[in-house]
Amino acid sequence: MPQPLCIDVKPVLDIESYAYVGKIRSISIHRCGKNRKFIAVETTEGQKVCSPCLDEEAVDISFRMLQLYTKNVKLEISR
Question: What phi and psi values does residue 37 have, to the nearest 5 degrees?
């Protein structure tokens, strides 16, 4: 679940917005159930924010958007 990793849980659109304005330092993807994942990011201010658990397809699409917005960011995927 996202709670142990993160201070706050935000909608995916909010996390994508942080990336769009250059506020993301690192991104990681974590499993949280069968065919479900969540995104964890660290902002440039050091805050750890997670998305809620979502279907893999939704997280994969959002991850592609984050990659587009953040070219020089450390990206991690946990298996």
Answer: -140, 165
pLDDT digit string, tens, across residues 21-64: 989 999 999 999 899 999 999 999 999 999 999 999 999 999 99
pTM (predicted TM-score)? 0.82
Domains and CATH numbers, the chain: 8-77 (3.30.720.210)
Handedness of CA 64, 49, 11, 2 (dihedral sign): positive
Q: How far is CA 14 from CA 1, 3, 45, 63, 79, in A?
A: 19, 17, 16, 13, 24
Dihedral (CA of 8, 19, 26, 66) sign = positive
